[in-house]
Every structure is written in C-alpha cells, then in structure tokens.
Amino acid sequence: MSTVILSDALFSAHTWYGHPECADRLEAIMEAIAVSGLADDLRRRAPAEAPEAALLAVHTPELLRRIRTLSSYGGGQIDGDTYVTADSWDAAVFAAGAAMGAVDVTMGGGRSNAFALVRPPGHHATPGRAMGFCLINNIAVAARYATRHYGLERVAIVDYDVHHGNGTQDVFYDDPQVLFISTHAAPFYPGTGAMADVGAAGPAAGTTLNIPLPFGVGDSGYARVFAELVAPALRRFRPDLLLVSAGYDSHWKDPLGPMALSTTGFSHLTATLLALADELCEGRVALILEGGYSLEALGACAVASLRLMLGRDPGLDLLGRPQTDGIDPGQQIATIRQRHPIFTG
Q1: Can you tell me the distance from the alpha carbon of 283 to that of 112, in angstroms, rounded to the nearest whole number?
Q2: Which of 124, 163, 164, 184 is an active site residue?
C-alpha cells in the first residue's frame, strides 16, 4: 500500500492573526512528518483547483460569490468564528481540489490511499453558509465528485472531529448514495447532530448516523462506539469508497474540545477504518483534515494516521493519556441500536 499526501503552501496564506485555525496547524503537521522519518516514504501530489462545477454540486452560487467577493476586497469576518483573507478564495478552492485529488488517488487502481492535508477545513460549511472556520465543504465536494465522476453507487463519510459535521449532514441528508456518520461531543458547537436526525424520509432514511457523546469520552468509550455502531453501520451500507473527516480536536490536549482521546485512541479509530476499507471497498480510503488545535497533538495524530496508512504500527504515544478512565457511552450506544433505521430496518 502506498500513501499520497496532498497539500500546498497556499493553504498557509489563509490565516488570521490570533485565530486558532491558523497556518501553524499545517506547519506543525509538516514538521512532525519531517521528524518522524516518513517523508521519503510518502508520495506527494500537488492539488489542482476545484472546478466551479464541482463546487456548485455542493454549494449555492450565492455562497461562492460571497466568499470570492469578500476575498477580492482583502477579506473580513463572515461571522464571529469564520474569517476570509485576500488569499482565502484560492486556498479554499485548492483545498476542495485536494480532496478531489485524494479521491482520484484511491480510484487509480494502484492500491493507494491518500491524506488531503488542507486548510481551511470544511465540514461545517453548509450548501449556503460558511461557518465554524469553514468556507467550502471539502469532503462533501469529494464525495459528490466520487459519485458523479466515477459513478460510485455508495460512498461513506466518517467524521470523528469533536464537532458535528453539520454542513456535511445538510449536503447529503436526502441523498441515499452517501452514508454520513458523525461522532461528536454534545451539547457542543454547532448544536446539531441529534440522534433523531437519521436522513430524509424515503430512500435516504437511515443514511445519516449521528452519535452524540457526553463530554469526557476517552479511548475505551470511542473504541466501543466504533465496534458497536460505526463498523456495523458501514458493513450494512457496504460503501464503494470510504472518506474520513479527520479532525483531531477530540484529543485530551486540545484547547477547544472537551473529550479525552489520546493519540493511541485516535490510532485505534483510524486503524479500524482502514481495516473496514480493506474489508468492504478494496482499501479505497482517503482522509481529509478537519480540526485539531493543539499543535503537538495534531502533529502526533497525523503522523500516527500516516504510519497506519503505510501499513505500519502507529508508533509510540509520547503525549500519554489523561488522568481519567473516560465516560462510558453505553447508554447512547444502546439507544441508537434500538432506534436507528440502519440497525432496525
């Protein structure tokens, strides 16, 4: 198995002084890769700009026009969390293009997987609204590209960012071709992702699986969720391609997230998804970077993921574990298994 990373220096140009979603994030990952000794083992591909048609397959013309215009005037605040700079439009369309390129890698027939190391992140961007640090929904653009360009019948997205991927849910809520699974802290920003949101009535019913978790769930709790909910759901859906919204802000060191995952815990989640991709879709899997705001944890988790993608062990967890066993999500697991259409249908 070979692993391709897609990134560009342009992504660092999108940055706002003092904002947690800044250029330092990608620089921390690249530095961690360099120190890890993996650099020579990873293939690199320069991303291309996402074409307008691919963006319009997910977003409204009005949203794209607003971002492009604000960027052309030098930037500004879209909301209290989300900014645009003079470089943001170019960064955003190349980030979406990198996610599309990751799909191309997985579909290339050479048993390759891919990690799109991009900024700005995307999973909060809805069809008509940029929010939550996100401008264009990179993973949604990639998933729709996969179904339309490659003719895939079923694509699964697993989002293990600490925040619910409300934008991704909104894009695919009535689309039976895309299974969206989100594990997220609740109640937490953006306040969406209820268990009862299972997809639009009709063919898409059951293709949204929200797993809201109480604050403090750690390694063993997340492992249970993936073993008892995520893996069975993927096996029932049987995707042709697996995409991962790889947000590392559930790490115990993250300053924004209230969860207790360690680097080892994240490695277990990633290894589980890689094994499921081997089992269900011939290893076709791509990761797209979302959140993660402890630079140390972000670099460590990204390197561990890349080691696993290369078929190696994840390496030592030098950051350790929090001084808590974590909260047991057994009640949430039981409720979802009893009520969600993907388990009861």
Answers
A1: 8
A2: 124
Superfamily of domain 2-344: Histone deacetylase domain (3.40.800.20)
Instruction: Yes or no: say if 138 and 118 are a contact pair by the CB < 8 Å rule.
Output: yes
Determine whether 124 is an active site residue: yes
Output the six-digit token pair for 250.
């559930």
pLDDT at 324 over 90: no
Dig out the tokens for 241 from the structure: 């391609």
Indicate the domain borders of the chain: 2-344
28, containing H or E segment: helix 24-36
Rounded (10°) CA dihedral 134, 139, 142, 146: -150
pLDDT at 280: 98
What does residue 45 show for φ and ψ, rounded to 5 degrees?
-135, 130
Beta strands in 57-154 (DSSP E): 75-77, 83-85, 112-116
Q: What pLDDT does residue 111 have?
A: 83
Does the pTM surpass 0.90? The reply is yes
Q: Identify the CA nearest to 208 among candidates 149, 158, 141.
A: 158
| Number of residues that this document lists for the chain | 345
- The predicted pLDDT at position 49 comes to 98
Q: According to the model, what pLDDT value does residue 263 have?
A: 98
Number of other residues whose CB lies within 10 A of the CB of residue 182: 26
Tell me the two tokens of residue 151: 């003719």
